[in-house]
# Entry
Amino acid sequence: MTCLTIFQAKAQKCNLVLSGVVMDASNNAPLEKAVVEIKELGLKFITDIEGHYHFYNLCKGSYTIVVNHMSCDSIKYKLTVQQNVIQNFKLPHAINELENVIVNAKRDLNVNTIKEVLSSKVVDATRGQSLGEVLSRANGVTVLQTGSTIFKPVIHGLHSQRVLLINNGVRLESQQWGSDHAPEIDPFIAEKFTIIKGAGALRYGNDAIAGAVLIEPKALPKQAQTNAEFNTGYFSNNRQYVISGMLESSPIKYPELSYRIQATYKKGGNARTPNYWLYNTGLQEINYSASAGLRKEKYNTEIFVSSFNTDLGIFIGSHVGNLSDLQNAIQLSKPLQNIDAFSYTIGRPKQNVQHYTVKSKSQIYLPNNSKLNLLVTYQKNLRKEYDRALLSNRPELDLDISTTSADINYESGSNKKITSNIGTVIMLQENIWAGSRFFIPNFRTQNVALYSIHNYNVNNWMFDAGARFDYRHLTTYRNKSDSVSAADRTFGNMSGTLGATYKITPHFKWLINGAYAWRAPQVNELYVNGLHHGTASFEIGDPKLKSEKAINLSTQLKYQTDSSWQFDLGFYNNIITDFINLTPSVPATLTLRGAYPTFRFVQSNAVLRGIDFSVHKTLNRSWMAGAKTALLWAKNRDTKEWIIQMPSNRIEGDITYSFANKLLPGAAIELRYMHIMQQTRIPASIADYIPPPNAYSLLNLDFSSEVAVGKKQISVGLTVVNLLNQTYRDYMNRFRYFNDEPGRSINLRIKLKL
Amino acid sequence: MKQLKVGIIYAVFMMLMVGCSKDVSKPNDENEHEAINKIELVFAETSGATTSFVIEDPDGDGGNPPSRIDTIKLNSNKQYNLTVKVYNIASGVIKEVSSTILAQATSHEFYFIPSGVSVTVQKTDKDKSGYPIGFLSSWQTAGAGTGSILFKLMHKTALKGPNDGPNVGHSDIQLNLPIIIK
# Structure
């Protein structure tokens, strides 16, 4: 029947569009993840974060539309389509009792910030890759790499402590002291990745100068459901395989209870450039998590525990003892220190990192739809870096950081024009070092924060305003020749946001946002004194550093089609005062191992401005094409020079063909072209060892499909990365001095839902 | 029920906290490096007479630069047997660690590269694979002169070969030692 309709449709030249927004009837807030279905055609669309849905290429006729959402009653609607139709739906809430049993859809606290949610297609296509690689699919997000195993997300040119990572509601607190410290998060844990660009994430911290990333698992199952999902993948380049499994259930006997267990195992060997293997670039990961929830009429509560364990090999040819070793290594087109062979073995230099999270979250329902949220978390991060083994097998760097935090938050009722979110966060953190080499001192930090965020909806306008106060007390303990001394520093400041969105039409919105954020200098910036693992550089902190302050202004025009067009245009201007940056300094540090270039943390005033633009056009039922670009200008306002180590401009284009046939339902093939320009915006006064690498272009191919095996659906995907086996180096990879990037990789992935 | 749950969570938290408790206010000594921070070069003449030259950096990498770098003084047209001794200084205790490095001989090699002076160096010891190490070497001086010796200990796990140049591996020691041949 469906097939017949399609054929008729083609014959009739059907080109009508049905689109609109699904809203909550009580407050007109957009409803995400509502399912809009055209019964007659069997077509379904899941609304995006703005509640938007659309169907293209419809024929004239009468249709039955059914709209479902987990927090609301479903509605059925008869609709006659004679021309392009914009139809908005307002869903009534289910009766109160039921609503309270169901975990309420999370209210969006960052309404008026520029954000990007990775589509489920992208999430599926990047399964098995690291978090940094997954996030780099968002426009304006790049990665800072250390070889082929360590990826750090960069938003609008900034990274590390300036990008908050919120994993299942818990702010990741780990060892983020350098570009070679990757986030300790298993992407398999999550279903949804939201990238907040700009300093709008007040709820999670004062220090999100670049932005924040929300990594969210799906909600625990409800109403006596049991689901299992099994994912596996193989990556040909480094012969990496990944297995991930998940089981979740809400027992029939106790429907108010639910639980989920999840585990991932990943093992990869040496990566291969088009011309040679990179020795000691294997990796291994074992991650697991468990969560359990209880839903009652008056409250719900959830416990979550997770463990992330990784061993990462670091390319043997990147490991240099001193400045002259580094210069010897750089002068070569092919690495001198290498064994051109495949192996899964991970030897020194390597990293071993473990991260544990325990979380308890409770929500108490108060009168008038308001809620009290209680969140208590504990995180422990153990980082061991094995450099050269000389006099013992101990790790050179051995850091143990633990963080306890409590967050109490009040959310006012959702059925008013003004909604408020008021809360406090208390955090205690301790770090202890034990390696054979000093890098950062032991420290204890105590943080207290108060925040208040308000949203106001009127007609086509949405406004928000928020303020936050943070106080941080830092005590460091140092031992120089058996004499222990403690030093205290305190930091306190206000941060705030102000934003507005105007809906020009239900599909066309204009957003403007201003934020003031600040970040206390981190322990490494203040007190680091030592060699950075394998980088042949000596880093020296400055105990007198002040807090870094940012005024971030951004605006966005987002058009989500009444026809088949989508575009998203964003501008940002981030003015940073007392920007802390690692800067080369003279003289070199002299040791028995030779001379090392010295880097010091210094403050300057900076401005980072840029444009993110993306456009998509659905040409017809089969073809879709898109393009995007991210441009960045980063300047030191004092010296008027460009800032070093910033991502270069890039453009991307993609074209997708969807096979609309019965044999391969939902099958699509996508060809993606990326062009990364050479970074020419580099400071003239700071000498780099070699100039930034040349521009390069890559082609990636992705095929995905659903295959029915009996009653089960299996999703399969085949991705070819670097299709043309291009030899290239990237400016944002610190190992650009030593080796080429990996060559072609054919990646296969299978997802089975039970 | 709820109190019980909260109680359990709290207990788990406390166990985690206490179970891993190390004292943040009792840090390790920053100067305690597991590194070579003293080197002694012992030159023995064929007559048996020995002369020692010392290089020292007691606070390890960073901090103060090396506190002592002796000038090597040798006589012209003589043969010497050099023995290299390496030490670790930690908390004021000096410990010879030559045997630790010797135990990893298959991944280490010393280099002595003269410039400005006329001296021929021949490594005389060999590792398990029959490749040179350099803890022992024979030095033949020619005419008088002043110059330097680039003294290196290269670390080359999995990379060591029979005739490696001085840039294979990464440097565990690299020093430009002044030398005077009288």
User: Anything to note?
Assistant: Residues 114 and 149 of chain B are 4 Å apart (CA to CA). Chain B touches chain A through 54 residues (CB under 8 Å).
